[in-house]
Design goal:
Elements: H1 4-14, E1 18-19, H2 24-35, H3 39-42, H4 53-63, E2 78-79, H5 81-99, E3 105-109, H6 117-129, E4 133-134, E5 142-144, E6 151-157, E7 160-165, E8 168-170, H7 176-187, E9 195-199, H8 200-208, E10 213-217, H9 222-229, E11 235-238, H10 249-262
Parallel strand pairs: 3-4, 3-7, 3-9, 9-10, 10-11
Antiparallel strand pairs: 1-2, 5-6, 6-7, 7-8
């Protein structure tokens, strides 16, 4: 496992953190849209208090490390690599607590199959190796998602939920699949998961339902960070969520190692 300093250098070099690819304009547009009540950017969450544009920017500076100056309106934006590492360690502690229980029920899902799937696969293997039951509700459920109205279907790869569109795993922000999955578990009389590990609407819908949830989010996904601030999401790791999959390996190694050490 890389040292903290080595991992910080890797995160900046790979642009998982540091000067990230997500532009300042895109970040601020999403913060404004969330402040204006656009449910797409809430990622399945509702909030207990109003969040203004300035409130959201201040939160994102604190939680993700974006530039705090509201006058910085274009060009480069940032994620603080130390906040990423701190959140990875906090996520590891939470996962370890759940894995210390007998046969915990864990659900993994990602809306980033071209990126974050590379993180979820080792996590799923770790959970299985430590006695977790990886729940896979609603496999094959189909709905008209946000992909130009085409039907999308829940499909699992090594017990990780994703959406497919005519055979292709797709990027999604939708909360509807997770709502349906949790609803199906309830209808079948099964227990809800002890933990959800996810991103985007998969994480938001789980947190909204009161399921313990940890997740990953980019600097242009403020909804999960607001959910964390209000206590609906337990840990959110700030990172660029769509770099080359191999770049996540050192981060994933730290997460898996820290979980194992805590058990």
């Amino acid at each position: 496992m890389l040292s903290r300093d080595e991992l910080r250098e890797h995160l900046v070099r790979s642009r998982i953190a540091g000067d990230v690819a997500t532009s300042r304009e895109n970040n601020l547009d999403h913060y404004s849209s969330l402040a204006n009540g656009d449910p797409y950017y809430a990622l399945g969450l509702t909030f207990d208090q109003p969040w203004s544009y300035r409130d959201i920017l201040a939160l994102m500076a604190k939680s993700a490390g974006v530039v705090p100056d509201p006058g910085h309106r274009s060009g480069q934006d940032t994620i603080d690599p130390d906040l990423t590492i701190d959140a990875i360690d906090a996520m590891a502690e939470r996962i370890a607590v759940v894995l210390s229980r007998p046969a915990p029920r864990i659900l993994l899902a990602t809306g980033h199959p071209t990126g974050l799937l590379a993180v979820h696969l080792p996590l799923a293997a770790l959970c299985r190796a430590n006695g977790a039951v990886l729940v896979t509700p609603a496999e094959g459920w189909t709905y008209a998602g946000s992909g130009f109205g085409r039907p999308r279907r829940i499909r699992y790869l090594q017990d990780i939920a994703m959406l497919d569109d005519k055979g292709n795993f797709v990027h999604t922000h939708d909360a509807a699949p997770m709502r349906h999955m949790l609803g199906e578990l309830g209808e079948l009389g099964g227990d809800l998961p002890d933990l959800v590990i996810a991103d985007h609407g998969w994480a938001g819908a789980a947190g909204e339902a009161g399921v313990p949830t940890v997740g990953f989010a980019d600097s242009n996904d403020p909804g999960l960070f607001v959910g964390e601030a209000e206590g609906k999401i337990e840990v959110v790791v700030p990172l660029d969520d769509n770099v080359l999959p191999r770049y996540y390996a050192p981060l994933t190694e730290r997460l898996v190692t820290q979980v194992s050490r805590a058990l």
